[in-house]
Specification:
α2 runs antiparallel to α3. The chain is rod-shaped. With about 150 residues, the chain is an all-alpha fold. It is about 80% helix and about 0% strand. It has one domain. The mean pLDDT is about 90.
């Protein structure tokens, strides 16, 4: 029983990191859902602005600003989301370093996680390249819908 209790106590830091990682994934899912809704709303506003015959420069400008803010906010949120993996990897590294003196090793799952996401072990100031390109296309769609003449 003492051996199990020692193992349980030694694995607590890793379990805490896994718990925080999974909580962060829930938050990432909510950010993704809200991003999709806001992008849809920005595109809908852009199309409505384009379709209205009485759209003036003020309504086009406000619609453009809204679209730009949505894309910018999504860019920032996705950048923050990418930090979840970086923080998890760094947490595992810290546990591995601290555990060496106590004879505690990381689980195979934690080691696999660190190896699999090794390219994300350093922090980033932008989301991934595909995500950034996606947001650029969305921004072009929004602004193009508002400002490119109908005919």
């Amino acid at each position: 029983m003492d051996e199990f209790l020692n193992f349980y106590q030694a694995s607590q830091p890793e379990l805490a990191i896994w718990t925080l990682y999974n909580s962060g994934r829930i938050a990432n899912a909510l950010v993704t859902i809200s991003s999709v809704l806001f992008i849809w709303l920005a595109i809908r506003i852009a199309v409505q602005t384009r379709d209205r015959d009485d759209s003036n420069i003020l309504s086009k400008s406000l619609s453009s600003i809204f679209g730009i803010l949505v894309v910018y906010g999504t860019f920032i949120a996705w950048t923050v989301n990418s930090g979840l993996i970086t923080g998890t990897i760094n947490g595992f590294r810290n546990v591995a370093e601290a555990g060496k003196s106590a004879g505690v090793e990381l689980s195979q799952s934690a080691i696999f996680f660190m190896d699999y996401y090794s390219n994300l072990s350093e922090g980033s100031s932008t989301p991934s390249l595909p995500a950034s390109l996606f947001l650029l296309v969305v921004l072009i769609m929004i602004l193009g819908s508002i400002w490119i003449p109908k005919k």
